[in-house]
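Write out this protein's structure.
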Amino acid sequence: MRSGVLGFAIALILTACATSAASTPSDRVLATSEAGVMRDYDSFASPPVNIPAPPDSVYPVLTAIYKELGIEIEVYDPPRGEIGNKSFSKMYRLGSTPLHEFVGCGSTMTGPAADSYRVQMSLVTHLKVSATGTTAQTVLTARAADTGSSKGWISCLSTGILEARVNKALASRHW
């Protein structure tokens, strides 16, 4: 009885703390339970890359990089400094790479959920003029759903590998 009361009190405190914390635009809810809400405040899994060229020269290169990755460009907005795709779905692999290499969505009885669920992703590179040319920041966000159930979407975390692949491809170009 005493442990039940203690557990309830801890859950109540955690829930109160979680609900009283102001959510910011960059946080993501990872999980919810009776004990509270788990959030991720690290919105960038990969550091920005500096390119010694103006943004107008970087856009065509990024278009080619996204094409090499098998990601169709749906967002091309130079005034806002954005290029990428904010909503595309993959199952099992992106190109020849298993999805769990790029996103962590938990595990199933058969292995990483990202390799068996439908994964909806957003991969967008943000370009900003810098003193030496352009700063490029690529951001991957994802969520996954088990196509065999009606449980809904689960949040996924980026491993940073896909963003690093974009950064490496950008940095390896001869500017």
